[in-house]
Amino acid sequence: MIKQGETLPDATLFEFIEDERAGCTLGPNSFGVREQTAGKRVVIFGLPGAFTPTCSAKHVPGYVEQFDALRAAGVDEIWCVSVNDAFVMGAWGRDQRTSGKVRMMADGSAAFTRALGLEQDLSARGMGIRSQRYAMVIDDGVVKTLNVEAPGKFEVSDAASILAALSPA
C-alpha cells in the first residue's frame, strides 16, 4: 500500500467531459495522474462504487458541501476515484451535482487502484475488484496524508477529516 511521503504511481484515469474545451473532447478523456497533480495540492478520495449507498449519500456529498472550505485550506482540486467507467462516473457526477467542484475520475480497469495497493475483492458481493474507501492529500504528486477506512467503516475518509488534517494544529 502506498505510504505517506511516496510519489503517486504513473497511471491514467478517465474523466467524462461535458463541455468541449481546449485539449478535451466531449466524452471520456484520459489524464495522467502525475501530470495532473504536478504543482498542485489535490485531495483524492476513493470509494467502492458509483451509485452505491454510502458513497452516494455521504462520501461524495460531503466533498461537494465542503468544496469552499477545502479551497480555502489550499486545495486546488478534489478528485473522486472509483473502479467504474467514465460514462458511469459522468452520470454519477451529474446526479451528485459535482460539476466545478469534484472531478469524477474513472479507474475502469483498477490499474491506479492496484498501483496504490488499495484494491479489494468484492466478487462475493457481485462487484469484482473495487477500491477500498480512502482519502489522501497530494502535494505536487507526493502523498502528504493518507486515511484508509477499515472494512465497512466511514470514519476517516470524509471531507471533514481531510479538512481537519489540512488545518494548522
TrEMBL record:
Active site positions: C55 (cysteine sulfenic acid (-soh) intermediate)
Biological source species: Paraburkholderia tropica
CDD domains: PRX5_like
Boundaries of every Thioredoxin domain copy: 2-168
Annotated PANTHER family: PEROXIREDOXIN (PTHR10430), PEROXIREDOXIN-5, MITOCHONDRIAL (PTHR10430:SF16)
Homology family: Belongs to the peroxiredoxin family. Prx5 subfamily.
Its EC number(s): 1.11.1.27
A Pfam entry, by short name: Redoxin
Superkingdom: Bacteria
SUPFAM superfamilies per UniProt: Thioredoxin-like
GO biological process: cell redox homeostasis; cellular response to oxidative stress; hydrogen peroxide catabolic process
Lineage of source species: Bacteria, Pseudomonadati, Pseudomonadota, Betaproteobacteria, Burkholderiales
Keyword Oxidoreductase included in the entry's annotation: yes
Job of this protein: Thiol-specific peroxidase that catalyzes the reduction of hydrogen peroxide and organic hydroperoxides to water and alcohols, respectively. Plays a role in cell protection against oxidative stress by detoxifying peroxides.
Key word Oxidoreductase present: yes
Protein name in UniProt: Glutathione-dependent peroxiredoxin
GO MF annotation list: thioredoxin peroxidase activity
InterPro entries recorded: PRX5-like, Redoxin, Thioredoxin-like_sf, Thioredoxin_domain
Keywords: Antioxidant, Oxidoreductase, Peroxidase, Redox-active center
This protein's GO CC annotations: cytoplasm
Record field: catalytic activity: a hydroperoxide + 2 glutathione = an alcohol + glutathione disulfide + H2O
